[in-house]
Structures are given as C-alpha cells and as structure tokens.
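Allow me, if you will, to draw on your knowledge of protein folds for a short while. I have a record of one protein: its chain in single-letter code and its fold written as discrete structure tokens. I should value your view on which stretches of the chain appear to form regular backbone elements. Thank you for your consideration; the sequence and its tokens are set out here:
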Amino acid sequence: MLQITLIRKTNGVGLIKFFKEEYGSIEKLEKKFEEKRGNMKMKLDLNDWKYFLKNPDEEVEDSETVFIKKSIFRIK
C-alpha cells in the first residue's frame, strides 16, 4: 500500500476565493448552515471565512492523506 500526503498552502485571500466557489457568498453559507443544523464542516468553513476576512494575509496549510492499494509507479 502506498501512502501519499497532499499539502495545500494558501493564504486567507485564497481560502476565501475557494469558499466563494464552493458556497457563492458568505450569506448563502450562513443560510445553508441555518437550514442544515449540525453540519460541522459548514460551521467550520463559516468561522474560517469570517476570520480570514479580518486576516487575509495569514498563511493556511491543509493536508490530506490518501492510500493507494495498487501501485502504479515502478521504482528502479
């Protein structure tokens, strides 16, 4: 099994751009969150959006680890 960790680095401006692509606007996200109470991802995204509006130059690092069962790579 092959483990790959993907790391994305951006800043508050980049993260807000991602949120706009995902939700449209902060108002739409707030409305969606109110309609679907208990969705932790939306709550975290909303909190992050509000924070990075005030701190647009702060660096953000996100990572995700994926596991591949069958290797497509040949190591010599």
Summary: The longest helix spans residues 40-54. The chain has a mean pLDDT of 89. The longest strand covers residues 2-11.
